[in-house]
Write a structure and sequence with these properties.
Strand order of the largest sheet: 3-2-1-4-7-6-8-5
Strand content: 5-15%
Shape: globular
Helix content: 40-55%
Number of helices: 14
Oligomer: single chain
Largest sheet: 8 strands, mixed
Distance between the termini: 51 Å
Order of helices and strands: EHEHEHEEHEHHEHHEHHHHHH
Radius of gyration: 22 Å
């Protein structure tokens, strides 16, 4: 380990990745700032992933640790694999260390480790990176999938731009993105321990982990300069993952877009409520009573709203209020609705820009 520096450990869960593990480990060897160690968790492997990794280890400029486990069928999933890999890595990193995780089919950018550490040095507790698909493999996917993805990404980006203007987050300034994928996460061991590590769930553990951190007001940075490239294969290792989505959408377009998207009007309402509640929460801790009209607007009884607002962390207060307000119930967006939703979102963004210019 480096002396007088935070230990940096990368955790990679791998299941039958003999074709991919070489490029993944080699990309970490080419970093502008090398990790102290990489922990490769071989879970339920039946191929020669382990043998390939061991052969490479002698030539790597970092310490490669291999851990092997066979999960019973009932818990053999991607979520538990990442949970254990990160827990093992935390043990190596120590209390003031930094954990990073990526996928066994991912190739991180040459400055991936360095840029994650720079974001943490700037004050972030956790860093979410951008995930791009391999260009050669992406060319084999039908064009209609790329078109659908482009529309989803466009609506997501415009809504996030509105959020950055209306309810700015000092820890996550523009430019930023909205991804929270296990293919590129970095977190301090302190923050990791604070939320009990990766949630025990079969899939979606990455988003749930970030949500848990947000509830405790962790400083979450969605850094657009932190990048990894992943495969876009149709035969994946994780049930419910990207490969399943691609394979399903090749056959037939899904009715609904990603669950994180919602209609523009709903998203704008959510952003504005979050802004108003953030202000009320700050005033509450300054000794001022919360505005009665806010509870009415949310459709939550005043006493219940006051109790929710009286939480140590804004993230916890917001999560409870968001789950309780009938006006913040989530609706999905159909793919057929995307062009109209994008047009409305762009209109709102333009109006907001004019309002900001007038106000200045």
């Amino acid at each position: 380990m480096r002396h007088n520096k935070r230990a940096t450990i990368v955790a990679i869960p791998a299941k039958n990745e003999a074709d991919r593990i070489g490029p993944s480990l080699s990309a970490l060897a080419l970093q502008t700032r090398k990790p102290d160690a990489v922990l490769l968790l071989l879970n339920n492997c039946t191929d020669n992933t382990a043998a390939i990794a061991r052969t490479l280890s002698a030539r790597l400029p970092y310490r490669l640790q291999l851990r092997t486990i066979t999960f019973p069928p009932s818990v053999a999933n991607a979520g538990n694999a990442r949970r254990l890999a990160m827990e093992c890595a935390a043990g190596l990193a120590g209390g003031d260390g930094v954990l990073m995780t990526t996928d066994a089919d991912a190739v991180v950018a040459p400055d991936w480790v360095e840029r994650n550490l720079l974001a943490i040095a700037a004050g972030a507790n956790v860093v979410c990176g951008r995930v791009m698909v391999d260009a050669i493999e992406a060319a084999r996917i039908p064009l209609h999938l790329h078109a659908d993805d482009a529309l989803e990404c466009e609506l997501t980006a415009v809504l996030d731009r509105i959020a950055a203007r209306l309810d700015p987050d000092p820890a996550d300034p523009w430019p930023r993105h909205t991804e929270a994928a296990g293919a590129s996460l970095a977190v301090t061991v302190t923050a990791f321990r604070h939320v009990g590590g990766i949630p025990a769930m079969a899939s979606g553990e990455d988003r749930a982990f970030i949500q848990a951190l947000a509830r405790l007001d962790a400083r979450i940075r969605h850094d657009p300069t932190v990048a990894v490239t992943v495969s876009c294969r149709t035969e994946g290792r994780a049930e419910g993952g990207m490969a399943d989505t691609i394979r399903r959408r090749i056959i037939r377009q899904d009715e609904f877009t990603d669950a994180s998207l919602e209609p523009t009007a709903d998203a704008y309402r959510r952003i504005d409520f979050r802004r108003r509640i953030r202000l009320a929460w700050r005033e509450r801790w300054a000794g001022y009573p919360p505005p009665v009209d806010l509870a009415v607007d949310l459709g939550i009884p005043d006493a219940e709203f006051r109790a929710m607002l009286n939480r140590r962390f804004f993230g916890t207060a917001w999560a409870n209020i968001e789950a309780s307000s009938p006006f913040l119930a989530r609706r999905r967006v159909r793919f057929t609705e995307l062009p109209g939703q994008i047009a409305y979102a762009r209109q709102l963004l333009a109006e907001q820009a004019v309002s900001d210019a007038v106000g200045s």
